[in-house]
Amino acid sequence: MPERSPTATAEREPSSAHESADGPEPLDRSDAPPPPDAPPPDAPPPDAPRDQLAGFTRAQRIAAGTATVLVALALVLHTAATFFTVSPANAVTDSHGDRIRAYMGPEFKQNWQLFSPDITRTMDHLYVRCRLRAADGSVSTTGWTDLTAVDLAELRGNLVPSRFRLQLNNAWSALGGSHDAEQRPLGQRGLDSERYLKRLALTRTPAPPPGSRTVGVQFRDIVTTVPAPPWQSGQTTPDPSVRTTPWWPVEPADLAEGHRA
């Protein structure tokens, strides 16, 4: 039998730093990245309760809950008031209409209607003429000025029309509910609407000749019914109606800058 070489019988040296005579040493995995689905180290246990208001005192939590309830209740009431303002007449508006209108106007006033609003079926054309007094005391009357045509000329073709051109129509509409059939004002509201209409009209009429001043105004409204569409046969269009106001006196405070003597 051949003899063994001394080197063959020698113990094998460790091949790496992780190996020793007793076997391989375990690797240190403290620096290894955590698995993707592992929770963060400072996360609470999954079954731990999460109280978002834990940092508040009991009084603060009661105040926050009360404020939330009050805001929600205010939104519900405001939404309900808006709905009954634009809805047709019903039992609620018959019983509480005055309170609803008092709350909504003027800050939250609505100018539209819900559920098939009433479509305007007439057209109003408003005219005004002035009574002038000259320096010698003589009185003359101007021709009729078409106030509606003045406003329409400013509105047509204007992509951003001014709401100032709608004031005359609103003032004339308000006059109908503040005067009786004899064109007499009903209380202070009637006097205020009359004065407002006069001042608006005088800003749209030509200035009087030098030495003359405006002492009175008179309005005439021609109401024309909108013709029925072609597919509705058998309906006749009534003749235009004319409404003329009495002569209203003009005070110096009613006059625009160009109308003052």
From TrEMBL:
Query: Which Pfam families does this UniProt record tie to the protein?
Result: DUF5819
Going by the UniProt record, its keywords in alphabetical order are: Membrane, Transmembrane, Transmembrane helix
List, as start-end ranges, the regions of compositional bias called Polar residues: 232-244
Entry superkingdom: Bacteria
Q: May I ask which residue range the UniProt record assigns to the signal sequence?
A: none
Question: InterPro entries, from UniProt?
Answer: DUF5819
Q: How is this protein named in the record?
A: DUF5819 family protein
Task: State the organism of origin.
Answer: Streptomyces lichenis
Which taxonomic lineage is given here? Bacteria, Bacillati, Actinomycetota, Actinomycetes, Kitasatosporales
